[in-house]
Design brief:
Distance between the termini: 22 Å
Structural class: mainly beta
Number of helices: 4
Oligomer: single chain
Radius of gyration: 19 Å
Number of strands: 13
Length: 318
């Protein structure tokens, strides 16, 4: 039996439809044979219905009864990776800050890189840093790897390269449900980085995250809007815990092979939302002299404000 993610019902929390992402995507993302027998690991396909973690089982089956009625197949396991972040290890959520160069920092020298991902394979000019993304504790669930930071650099296609071929129909599934989107153009390259508030730091030797090419997105034609009032409690290493309201999806970030260095994980994407502090929450207290290091070199940055919250996502595009 084949069916898409979800049953067309709505998430109680977000009100978003969960239709649209098909079984073929999940099988491509989670290449594994179902195991037989009793219910088992929520993060793995099984021929038996249900899984051993009741909270995760309930979250998935509330949207897709197939998973509890017939079998916990690859579709169910794929849903668990985004609906059950405290059960299935994947990408941590990130709080991303708009940044500027600290007075003690050196000016970034633009450079060219090649990026290959599910959308395109071409050369880009990396212009300057503008974001810093910290792994975040969300709804009291701590990040699995607090050392995995991402520095965001503005990018544009290199001279002579074709313009981005817009993806008109793109379905993204995250912990809130499914959303129909379309891409506009490339905006940011997220680079695995080390971060320190106490002085210079060495670049990460074996980061647990990939490079991500991030594309500006808008609501897809005929797709539902993100409901108003979605609020998320989040805090990171800067210690400024607060409630954020998610305003709209801003970027889809695709794992990308930089300069033919290879990819360890092509499954997990990031869907980023414009975020604003909820009513009554304090303003961001700017953090200065943040030392950041990655293969592009070292930066000293100051935060300006919270810009986005990013969450692990599965993506389906024609």
């Amino acid at each position: 039996m084949s069916r898409p993610f979800g049953t067309g019902t709505r998430s109680a929390r977000s009100g978003r439809s969960t239709r649209g992402i098909g079984r073929a995507l999940a099988l491509a993302l989670l290449v594994q044979a179902p195991t037989a027998g009793a219910a088992g690991d929520c993060c793995a396909a099984s021929a038996a219905p249900g899984c051993e973690t009741s909270a995760c089982e309930s979250a998935v089956c509330a949207e897709d009864a197939f998973c509890c009625d017939l079998a916990w197949d690859a579709v169910c396991a794929a849903q668990a990776t985004v609906r059950c972040p405290d059960t299935c290890a994947g990408l941590d959520p990130f709080i991303c800050y708009k940044t500027r160069r600290n007075a003690e920092g050196e000016k970034f020298e633009p450079r060219s890189v090649t990026l290959a991902n599910a959308f395109e394979d071409k050369a880009f000019e990396v212009r300057k840093p503008g974001l810093l993304c910290n792994p975040a504790e969300v709804e009291a669930v701590p990040p699995t790897n607090s050392d995995d930071h991402l520095a965001g650099y503005r990018v544009r296609r290199a001279k002579g390269e074709p313009a981005h071929a817009r993806v008109a129909q793109l379905e993204a599934l995250d912990r809130f449900g499914s959303l129909g989107l379309r891409t506009v153009k490339e905006r940011v390259l997220l680079v695995p980085s080390a971060k320190s508030l106490g002085g210079p730091v060495a670049p990460p030797l074996d980061p647990g995250v990939e490079h991500f090419a991030c594309y500006q997105v808008k609501r897809g034609q005929g797709a539902e809007e993100l409901p108003k009032g979605i609020e998320v409690a989040a805090v990171d290493q800067f210690g400024q815990a607060k409630l954020f309201e998610l305003k709209k999806p801003s970027r889809i970030c695709i794992p990308s092979d930089k300069n033919d260095e290879g990819l360890a994980d092509e499954r997990h994407h990031l869907l980023c939302y414009k975020a604003k502090r909820a009513k009554g929450e304090p303003k961001h207290a700017k953090v200065g002299a943040i030392h950041v290091a990655n293969p592009f070199g070292s930066e000293i940055l100051d935060t300006r404000r919270e810009e986005e919250l990013c969450f692990a996502s599965l993506v389906d595009a024609p």
